[in-house]
Task: structure prediction
Amino acid sequence: MNESFGRRLRARLDACGPLCVGIDPSPALLHAWGLDDSPSGLERFSRTVVETVADVAAVVKPQSAFFERWGSRGVAVLERAIADLREAGTLVLLDVKRGDIGSTMAAYAEAYFDPGSPLAVDAVTLSPYLGFGSLEGAIASAVANDAGVFVLARTSNPEAAGLQQLVADQVLAGAAAANAGHTPFGPVGVVMGATLPKAEHSLTDLNGPILAPGLGAQGATPADVARLFSSVRHAVLPSVSRAVLADPKRLRSRTLHYRDECVAHLMPETAARR
Result:
């Protein structure tokens, strides 16, 4: 790759609209699709999602845990999904929430950012709870390989509220510092839940993308996202999973519905031209 993650993401958002689709092959969803909870069911589910949404979603976000639970067979399915998405030109955000220090963090960075790795992706999610400074090596590796990271700041699960309220501003400050001088986005995005009741943190100086999970099954709407992130709508990437994955027959139509709604609320000038 010769173009920064921020530039690739901006181009993809402008071309496809602001929507991230998750690949979350839980046992419940596999059964809902009439598939076995097995590596073969996992592969069929993943391949169907990739083939159906790769050309209409700006970003696709596989949840690594649902693949890892099958060991090497599941990881092989994940590697294939990543390769197929990248061949299609879709940006891949691997949801792994890694966080460690020193050589361990360097090993994670090598797994996800080294172009020769079968798990190499455009971006990953990271946990900052060993200190934002513990992420410096991973961020440096991401920049060196034209990739990005999304650091947990205020997630959509209610259990996190008390802890994350205490540290979110530190995470945002660290991300803003890492993004200084980059255009159109820096390499460090943050995760801010779309289900938050109100905007409690300033994002205007972030200079990075904002992954906003919680669209659909968790209750948030594109209008909620636009309201919550009104000052940085251009940088928001709403994420939807169960609301589009529940029915394979409606997977594409539901994806297009959420995509178009997100365009209308977050990119009204683009919507007017369509």
Notes: The chain has twelve helices and eight strands. The mean pLDDT is 95.
